[in-house]
From TrEMBL:
Any one GO BP annotation for this protein: transmembrane transport
Name this polypeptide is given: Sorbitol ABC transporter membrane protein
Alphabetical list of CDD domains matching this protein: TM_PBP2
Gene Ontology, cellular component aspect: plasma membrane
Pfam families linked to this entry: BPD_transp_1
UniProt source species: Chroococcidiopsis thermalis (strain PCC 7203)
Span list, region Disordered: 1-24
Mode of membrane association: Multi-pass membrane protein
Length: 306
């Protein structure tokens, strides 16, 4: 009696010698790029670590000497550092809240069908392609200028008088500028995510009597949770190093009102010429960025697992 079950032929496994040759060839192809990447990352970090233990001022470079942790002691006891860290956290949290909230609402809006939707989408994401320096100059000279700016013309027309944004509300002005720059990024990611939502699920919810608010709260928002976590993680990494907008508009002032951690390091390095102190501040910034990145990566991974 012949068996009716067909025996599937076993796939021959390559011998160990061939596998080792294949792994060796793969490593030889990947190794150059990995070595270049490691050098590109490790060399600047090692130099920063070395200078952080040195008393090195550019005005007197010959007086450089090893001083141990004195730079870290001075930096950590400097009130300006903690002011800069607080400003950085306020700036990051505020811009994150604005871009994610408005990005979610705009994503829901642009997902609807209306005349001119394609043009509206292009116009909505276009600010993301404007360089930070250029956008800061536009907001400083054309929109927020207390004499010739558009906002001043509007407030004077309403009888409220002109507002000097960069003198009276400097941090709020920076938050508005950075939010305008990064809102298109959040919109693009969230709109892509909301377009992947199953339309049959929406129709079933509508047939069950769900209104627009219930659809957004119980269907769309849970679907967007992963995308929101990814947007928050990516934006936070960039927001910790905001510099051009502050440099062009307020110069970190008035006083230390808009001095974040990146601008504080710039002041130490290129205005006070204190390379050792700036290097110590840079390492503190790297430590803070890694703590935030680890926290965000865990939250993103948690959302991806659910």
């Amino acid at each position: 009696m012949s068996s009716s079950l067909a025996v599937k032929p076993q796939q021959a496994t390559p011998p160990p010698a061939k596998r080792s040759r294949r792994q060796t060839s793969t490593l030889s192809l990947v190794a150059p790029s990995v070595i270049v990447l490691l050098l590109w990352m490790i060399v600047p970090l090692a130099m920063t670590l070395w200078f952080s233990f040195q008393r090195y001022n550019l005005l007197n470079p010959d007086a450089r000497r090893f001083i141990g942790i004195e730079n870290f002691t001075f930096i950590l006891t400097d009130p300006a550092l903690w002011t800069a860290i607080a400003t950085t956290l306020i700036l990051v949290a505020s811009v994150l809240a604005i871009t994610i909230a408005l990005g979610t609402l705009l994503a829901v809006l642009f997902d609807q069908d209306f005349p001119g939707r394609g043009i509206a989408r292009v116009l909505a994401i276009s600010p993301f392609f404007v360089m930070p320096t250029v956008s800061a100059l536009i907001w400083k000279n054309m929109l927020m200028h207390p004499v010739n700016g558009l906002f001043a013309q509007i407030t004077r027309g309403l009888g409220l008088g002109a507002i000097d944004w960069f003198a009276d509300f400097p941090l709020l002005a920076i938050i508005i500028i950075v939010s305008w720059e990064w809102l298109p990024f959040a919109l693009l990611i969230l709109l892509t995510a909301i377009q992947s939502l199953d339309r049959e699920q929406l129709e079933a919810a509508r047939m069950d009597g769900a209104n627009a608010i219930a659809l957004f709260r119980f269907v769309m928002l849970p679907h967007l949770s992963r995308a929101i976590a990814v947007v928050a993680a990516i934006e936070t990494i960039f927001f910790l190093t905001i510099f051009a907008e502050i440099f062009v508009t307020t110069g970190g002032g008035p006083g230390l009102a808009t001095t974040n951690l990146a601008y504080y390091i710039f002041l130490k390095a290129l205005l006070e010429f204190d390379v050792g102190g700036a290097s110590a501040g840079g390492l503190i910034a790297v430590l803070l960025a890694n703590i935030v990145a680890i926290f965000l990566m865990r939250s993103v991974a948690r959302n991806l697992d659910t």
